[in-house]
Amino acid sequence: MRVKNYYYASSLEDAFSRLHESNKNAIIAGGLWMKKTAQEYDTLIDLSKLGLDKIEDKKDEVVVGAMVTLREFEHSPVIQSLNSGMTAFAVREVMGLQFRNMATIGGSIFGRYPFSDVIAGLIVLDVALHFYPEAKMSLVDYLSYKGKYDGILTHISIKKDNAKGYFKKVKATALDFPLLNISISKRNNKLYIALGSRPMTAALCLKAMDYLDKNPVDDEAINKASEIACEELMFSDSTNISKEYRIDLAKVYIRRGLKEVL
Fold first, then answer.
1. For domain 55-159, which CATH number applies: 3.20.20.10, 3.40.395.10, 3.30.465.10, 3.40.190.10?
2. Is 35 a residue whose pLDDT tops 80?
3. Looking at the predicted structure, is the pLDDT value of residue 193 above 80?
4. Which sequence spans correspond to the domains of the chain?
5. Topology of domain 164-261, CATH
6. Strand blocks (E) in 19-69
């Protein structure tokens, strides 16, 4: 990565204005994946002086600033209380401690990385993304948004639901990229299932979820839902895992996860 200028924004308005001066300007969060690219930038815009590094516990939701590090996120008592601790656990699975001390929630989400444990852990919750200028959309809608989003991600809000969750990251070694991510939650008496690193970005298994809504959830229904989930989403081969093995793993862990949250 080559950068001509590094700029500390004095406000969100300042950051947005500077960002749109050139299509070679970009916002930098942790910058850990950005630095792996071969791109050239005129100006990288740093938001670290704008107070976006706080976690706020509100009445019905938790608000997380985009510059909160993954380490701060995973150690927050309020985050640990969500979804039976699954949300914090999913983030704890990301790389090593030094990495999580620098990587941010905003950067991890905005990049829509296919291998993201963070996205896989959050997509089964009621999560909204807040942008400057004033805009709001669900995490699910953002993941399906075509092209690069024009705004600046400032914070996310996670609705407090009486939920129980399950998260499984299949990996070869402790610090490895995921071969597959499985996340499941039961909130407001509805089951949510998501699969990530297929190797595509995490997505909800909507047909499987609909099937469980319409049928008594017994062992037969759980087995059927795992089959439907693996039929409705796309899987591919990678250098270290085959498409077929990914599907076999997904079926097993979906069944285990559903039984755990139930």
1. 3.30.465.10
2. no
3. yes
4. 2-46, 55-159, 164-261
5. Enolase-like; domain 1 (3.30.390)
6. 25-28, 40-46, 55-57, 61-65
